[in-house]
Amino acid sequence: xxxxxxxxxxxxxxxxxxxxxFHIQHALTVEGTMRWYAQELGYGEDAExxxxxxxxxxxxxxxxxxxxxxxxxxxLVEIGCSEEFIHAVCSHGYGICCDVEPEHEMEKVLFAVDxxxxxxxxxxxxxxxxxxxxxxxxxLKKKFKDxxxxxxxxxDVIKVGAERLGWELDTLLDRTILAxxxxxxxxxxxxxNL
Length: 194
Hints:
Structural class: mainly alpha
Strand content: under 5%
Number of domains: 1
Oligomer: single chain
Order of helices and strands: HHHHHHHHH
Largest sheet: none
Number of helices: 9
């Protein structure tokens, strides 16, 4: 079993350095998405490690966006995170804002889904249901191709993420819709109680 901080400590650290509701929602979404992927890909025993890395992946972004993934290690040490955990968190910024390369499958998943969860979330908000529960792959692909839609979500990073995993882009898109469906209700409830 991999080492990771208690969720209460992780959430407290996230909220200490991130006050914007949007950043909290993104962190909770990536947490749930990573938990789903751990189960889906046969890493069930490490699902909470995957989820906690997802929860804390942007811990430094709220205050230090220009030092993203560079400031994170010193913040994560505050709650006793292991070197392995810190490497996993920082690896999602590889080639974007740091040189910590994603090595393990979990790190490659985080790299691939970080931007994608933002794109799917934006697409969901445009739907009459305001949800990804009824989102189809074809609908997401149209939004993906529209460079003006959610322009801040890098399509190149998402494509590189799929390639690193050895997956077709459609596979990554489809699986991540399912992953976000699995946690959408819990994330919405958490945001209402924020």
